Here is the input.
Amino acid sequence: MLTDASILFQIAGIGIIVALIHTVLKQMGKEEIAQFATLVGFIIVLVIVINGLSDLFQQIKSVFLFQG
Amino acid sequence: MKWIGALLFIGTTTWIGFEWSNKLNNRPKHIRQLKNALQILEAEILYSQLPLQEAFTTIAKQIPQPTKSFFHTLGLSMGKQNPDLYSLWEEQVDHLMHLSCLSRNEQEILKQFGRTLGQHDFDQQQKHIQLTVSHLDRELEDARDNQTRYSKMAKSLGILCGIFIVLLLI
Here is the structure.
């Protein structure tokens, strides 16, 4: 059911931008802030993915248990 | 509509980043101006033996903005009303902080210096000016260090954060 692939592009974009921020901060010698930025990016992507997964489980439940 | 908003947002964060890096770039310049002004003040006190008010107006003629307006208004307000110099000095230092990119350290150094201004004889005054100049030298080194390190980072971080948040919201 890949009608809408925009979420994939969104996650890819977030990944690229977070990687860039990490590189810039690391070059300027702010290692710990760079790590923190990566962690925040990771958590945000995790939240998006978990949202998608919960949608998937709702779908499965509605298919097999006949409720929404 | 969505895209206009996104562009506006990226523009704003880019602008903030540039403003930040501008601030980092201007701080050494402003500290150098202050140092020049203090050296002129020293010369005026030691060699021309001008009173402070006239020394301030002479400095204001030789120094670029924003330090110029600092000494200019100081000289003017000393002519108009004459409470103690220190309260005037303190007020003008606070005003200078808004106009320039100086940090709290410089503010403290200037206030310390204002407390000694006009209280001592030539020798003591010269020593105090030397002391302030050496304090400013230390700050200048610090400011230069920060400039080379962070001014580029500030620019790119502004743009990147803008794109990041826009990606989150779209």
Remarks:
- Chain A touches chain B at residues 10, 13-14, 17-18, 20-21, 24-25, 27-30, 41, 44 (CB under 8 Å).
